[in-house]
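Note to self: keep these together.
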Amino acid sequence: MLERATPPFGRLVFDRDAIVRAALRAYIESFIAKLDPLERHRFAVSYGGNWVGDTQRGAFYNDDGCGDYEVVAWTETGVVGLAYELGWGPTAQLGLSRDEVTGGPDDVRGAVPGLPDELEPAFMTAAGLLDTIEQVYRKGDVYAVYKEKMAGVGFWLYGDRLAGTLFDDPTAAGADRLAAWGLLRGDRLPLVCRDRAKFWADQPSAVPIQAIVDAVTARALTGPTELLPDELATLLPTPPKPEPLLYAQRMLQKAGITWPGSPEIPPEEPPSPRAAD
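Structure:
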């Protein structure tokens, strides 16, 4: 656990295990809250997430639904975080030109200066989850195309060392999304909205959903688990639509969470080929 006074965010505390627990909880919360037909929990901290790996080596992609996101990735010994605010990628914020970006991990390496070799696997995992854009621009008398991995700020945590452009320039676009991981309350991540990280008081209607999220997270931290029948009865007072249910089942399965009896979940069908123009 390392502390850092970082204006304008104040006292930030970064802890590898706390970050992993909060990432797992946020991921579980996002899909359980969306599945609730009564929409009792409206302030989930993640609009849409992705999970890879496990609590030893893995990553969490956290999207706000408006174009901003961050990725935190971890190994047994540390964490790498990369964030993007709409319009502020490597060419806008990390000093790279359109001729220098390639759409690969090195586009965003400047966000984590001094990264220890031991965290290279976490960096590569995080970079692999970033969005990549492809744009056309005029270069002299011709048009050229460039690809760019989209992140503009980062941090890394390893042992008693903590660094990154989050601390070099805390006012950088996207910094608020990473600072949130230093503002955890227990296993809870604050909701980042309009450049602010804020904990919303639980609405009374959200209490049963939060209780399910807490219980499932606690079990998932120790290994694969199932949603319990009483949890499903609370979550789904009416039968859910098949498509959202299947999607939630697939996404939760990534974190080792299945339905009672561990039913076989059909694989996602590949997209249909486009018809010829």
